[in-house]
Amino acid sequence: MRIDAARPAGPFVAGLSAAGFKVEDAQGVTGVYPALLLTPVRADPWTPPALDALDIDALAPILDPVPEFILLGTGRDLSHPPRALVRALDARGIGIEAMDSRAAARAWGVLRSEDRRIAAAFYPL
Question: What whole-number distance in Å separates Cα of residue 34 and Cα of residue 60?
């Protein structure tokens, strides 16, 4: 599936496939990631823990600079993040919005086109 949206600054999710998230950076370089961490300036491969074990340490690479909130793609289906993670992020003034990974990938482009200062963690499709 191809995702069409206004081109935001920095990396954006250009499409989805069985192999993962197709990400293009500002220079047009494309990579495909089964699981992914995103900030407004970079996309990194990610080996996520089981969702019920997700903690602040697993998200550390996307917490500096501090985002407004984290967009969490929880895989094929929507699942809620662990309460301990929500509390730890809240203590730092960071919100978290969970949705299935396909919806999160689409939301990334919309929110970044609005120049929102967000970060994202996407579990495999």
Answer: 19
